[in-house]
């Protein structure tokens, strides 16, 4: 299941023939799929939201602490809806969402519109991805203090092929 969600700097599917190992991401934990390229070992993996950190800096904390708070969620990633769904699966109260294009540039106009949406939604906090967070330099300091970055953990579902490849590389 090589993704059809292509973006900047991604190679075509044919490039997988050069790989020593393929890691398929965003797979359900119970997935048992056929090899994406015959003869090349592969692992399945899934992304899991596991905590968040204030955009303004500070210590990370579990997402569950935000249950009961009203959140505006925004993201400029390949599949923003998957991010929004993941937040809701964590039991968070998402009162409004803003889906942006992948690799969006957060200029002053967009930053201002996010702040306006935050105020009009009556959210307590805004939440976005770490990927988006590195681009959020144009937000006001007050809004930065109300913005959280959700962090992902990549879990390899069937790590045996990866471990075998790494052990082989270490013993060369």
Q: Please describe the biggest sheet, giving its number of strands, its sense, and whether it closes into a barrel.
A: 6 strands, mixed
Which percent range fits the helix content? Answer: 25-40%
Number of strands: 6
Provide the low-confidence segments as ranges: 1-6
Mean pLDDT: 87
Summing up helix and strand content along with how strands pair, one would put the structural category as alpha/beta
Q: Give the topology string: H per helix, E per strand.
A: EEEHEHEHHEH
Radius of gyration: 19 Å
CATH topology-level name of the largest domain: Rossmann fold
Number of helices in the DSSP assignment: 5
- CATH architectural grouping of the largest domain: 3-Layer(aba) Sandwich
Estimated share of beta-strand residues = 25-35%
Shape: elongated
Total domain units = 2
Distance between the termini: 31 Å
Oligomeric state of the chains in view: single chain
**Spatial order of the strands in the main sheet?**
1-2-6-5-3-4
CATH class term of the largest domain: Alpha Beta
